[in-house]
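Example record for the data management plan.
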Amino acid sequence: MVVVYDQLQSWYETNAECRRAEQVWKNIMVDIGGEICQNLSPKEFRHLRHSTFRINGLMHLYSTLRRQPHNTQLGVLSGMITHLLDYFYDHRLPTSAEIADMEKIISLKLKPQSSDWLENALYHLAKQTWAIIPNPHMVRDILSDMLGTQKDSLHQVEPVCKLTSEEMKHITKMKGYHSVCLYFSLANPNFTSQEANCLVSFGYYMQYMDDLEDFYEDQKESRRSLISSIDEGVDEATRLLKSAQNDLATLYDHQGYDYHMARNKVLFYHYAIRYYCLWGEYIRALPVSIKKGLAYSQEITSRLIPFFYMAPVNWAE
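Corresponding structural encoding:
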């Protein structure tokens, strides 16, 4: 009964935060939503919304762990910037000079020099974000590390990819690690290197879960990942979660942190994504008309229960 109660409480709190995120999302979209919708396909727009709610959820999880208030606006802005940056790297195939300019734009060291919608959207979001970051100096250093791993991940694109399995593993691990450190440093002005050292395995797990969700999308767009099949990926993700839990408990499982509730939220997330990925294997074999109906049902459900904006979207597309 205690386990059931804890899971229900996690569900209630997570969905309540998703409702807050939905309102912040709508407010931001009033300013730049029109231009984004004109330039992103409906599928890519859903991925943007999905990433936004997911990253805000991760930052809310960290606030729960620290027993501190969560800044939903900062979480939503961080999610939008992350996805649009990923879109820039994955779909624009930028040159080194274009990457350098974009990094300056999101750091507010350079204003957009063109009418490019993506540059303008990222600059607009970055201005709002830097204005509410508690410790911008620390965040800039961690952001630089994260952008470095983003550039490394460009080597995963076929046919130029010549990475070994170990090199792929290292990139995946570092990309997840630096991303988690960035989000946690955004939320916590007192984030320390000691805390960061305990997040390597958790960052690896989170990035692996992202790759698991994007398995078919990566195949379609000729990006390599560590995952060879959904079934094997789900098993490996469970193993990575167990490893991450041990490291997280070392730092957080004591008085001063709400480790028990945060752990329940991670487990809820893990089993929800596990279910969606495995169920998606059956969905893929269904006729297109049925898959479209399921996608429409998910969209309607998400409007009633915003938690489902965090659910994977690729299997129904």
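Summary line stored alongside the record: The mean pLDDT is 87.
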